[in-house]
Amino acid sequence: MRRFLVGIGIAIGIFIVVWFFLLPFEQSILENNYQVSPIPGIKQTVWLQNFFLVGVYCLGLSIGITIVWQLFGQFSIHISSSWLEISRGVWIALFVLLLLTVLIGGFFLNFLTQDSGRYYASAFYALNGFLIYYISSLFSSPTNVKFAPWGSKFLP
């Protein structure tokens, strides 16, 4: 139960860091470096506010899928020697679900742009979701599924 709570705590900590530091930084990158130009009728400031709101939505979705993974790991039963493959399959399925949902949702919830601003925004959403899900599952998955995330075998 301790690892479960630590996992949720890490996910919430990353959520806060991304929300208060990374999302505004990405917003400034889109505003200053890529000069995102929305379609006529939508001001750039409105588009950037929408980017931020959709980003928070995607972060909440990432927290939700992370909690599903932590609950699965906490309450799953180690039933056979192939349990690692089963749990890794569940971890990968949740990871793919997260990325697809964040990419597609971020693409369609953002306002249209004249350039590739929506693609950059979706890539930022995927990066943020990846950070929350992967780091929290890598460092604090429950004991039953501790070695399911990629790279976890190399941690102490």
What would you note in describing this structure?
With 156 residues, this protein is an all-alpha fold. It is 74% helix and 0% strand. It has 4 helices and no strands. The longest helix is centred in the first third of the chain and has 32 residues, at 2-33. It is elongated, with a radius of gyration of 17 Å. It starts with a helix and ends in a 16-residue tail after the last helix. The mean pLDDT is 82.
The major β-sheet equals: none
Q: In percent, how much strand structure appears in the residues?
A: under 5%
Query: What Rg do the Cα atoms give?
Result: 17 Å
Ends apart, CA distance between termini: 19 Å
Low-pLDDT windows of residues = none
Mean model confidence by pLDDT? 82
**Helicity, in percent?**
over 70%
Could you give the count of β-strands? 0
Structural class: mainly alpha
Helices and strands, in order, run as HHHH
Number of helices: 4
Shape type: elongated
Please give a handful of descriptors for the protein shown.
74% helix, single chain, 156 residues, 0% strand, mainly alpha
Set out the fold topology.
Elements: H1 2-33, H2 44-75, H3 83-109, H4 117-140
Helix pairs in contact: 1-2, 1-4, 2-3, 2-4, 3-4
Describe the structure concisely for a colleague.
By secondary structure, this protein is mainly α.
